[in-house]
Design brief:
The chain has eight helices and two strands; from the N terminus they run H-H-H-H-H-E-E-H-H-H. It is globular and about 45 Å long.
C-alpha cells in the first residue's frame, strides 16, 4: 500500500498507458479503489461474501477469471469521474481498513474452494500479491521499475491467496509477473498486455513452482 502511494505521487500524467490491457494510469487508480473496497467487503461478509459464493461453485478456472474480469470492468465503468489522487486516497482508506480489521479475523473461514478451506489469513495473500503487482504497473507506467523486498513471500502468498491460478516456475518475482499475465519486458510492444490479477491467464499448461509454503499466521 505504501509503495502504491509513493509511486502515485510521482505520476505526472494519469493518461499514460500501463501494462494492464487498455488501462491508462487513471483507470488503474480506479481499479485499485474498487478492488480495495471489494476486499474490505469480502472480509466483513466472510464466510458468506460474494467471493465465497463464487468460489463455492467449484467452477473451472476460466469461468472464475471471466466472472471476476466482468466484475472489474463493470465496477470501473460506474465509478464517478473523479481525479486520480481521489481514487488513490479512496484505495488507501479501504486498504487501511482491511489491514486493520484482518488480524482480528485471521483464522476465520474466508472461502472454500474445491473442498479446501481458505482462511482470512490465507486470502491476505491475494491482497499482498495484488498491491505489489499494481505497484509494478504504476512504476512501469512512469518509466521506472519495481521489485518487492521479499519476492519469495509472494510465492506463498500466491499459492494460498490465489488458489485457482497455478504459478509458473522461475525467479520468484518474474514467476508472479508472468503468472498474472504480465511480461517483465513491458513496454515491449510484442509482449502481452496484462489485466488485473482476477483476469490473469489460467496458466493451465504451466508447471507449479516448487517449495509451496503455507503462510498461516504470517501477515503478508
Amino acid at each position: 500500500m505504501q509503495a502504491i502511494r509513493a509511486l502515485a505521487a510521482q505520476v505526472g500524467d494519469w493518461g499514460v498507458p500501463t501494462p494492464c490491457a487498455d488501462w491508462q494510469a487513471l483507470d488503474l487508480a480506479g481499479h485499485l479503489r474498487c478492488v480495495a473496497e471489494n476486499y474490505l467487503e469480502y472480509l466483513q461478509d466472510s464466510p458468506d461474501s460474494r467471493l465465497a459464493k463464487l468460489f463455492a461453485q467449484d467452477a473451472a478456472t476460466a469461468v472464475l477469471i471471466r466472472q471476476q474480469a466482468r466484475q472489474n470492468a463493470t465496477e470501473l465503468a460506474v465509478l464517478p469521474p473523479e481525479a486520480a489522487p481521489s481514487r488513490i486516497m479512496a484505495f488507501t482508506v479501504s486498504a487501511g481498513a482491511y489491514a486493520d480489521l484482518m488480524p482480528e479475523m485471521w483464522d476465520r473461514t474466508h472461502l472454500i474452494y474445491r473442498g479446501t478451506k481458505y482462511t482470512v489469513g490465507d486470502h491476505a495473500g491475494a491482497a499482498c500479491v495484488e498491491w505489489h503487482l499494481h505497484a509494478w504497473d504504476l512504476a512501469k507506467a512512469i518509466g521506472a521499475d519495481y521489485r518487492p523486498d521479499d519476492p519469495e513471500l509472494l510465492v506463498s502468498a500466491w499459492h494460498w491467496g490465489v488458489p485457482h491460478l497455478p504459478l509458473v516456475a522461475g525467479d520468484a518475482w518474474e514467476a508472479v509477473l508472468r503468472s498474472s499475465g504480465r511480461s517483465p519486458d513491458w513496454p515491449d510492444r510484442t509482449a502481452p498486455a496484462a489485466g488485473s490479477l482476477a483476469g490473469a491467464r489460467s496458466g493451465r499448461d504451466a508447471p507449479a513452482a516448487p517449495g509451496r509454503r503455507r503462510v498461516r499466521g504470517r501477515r503478508a
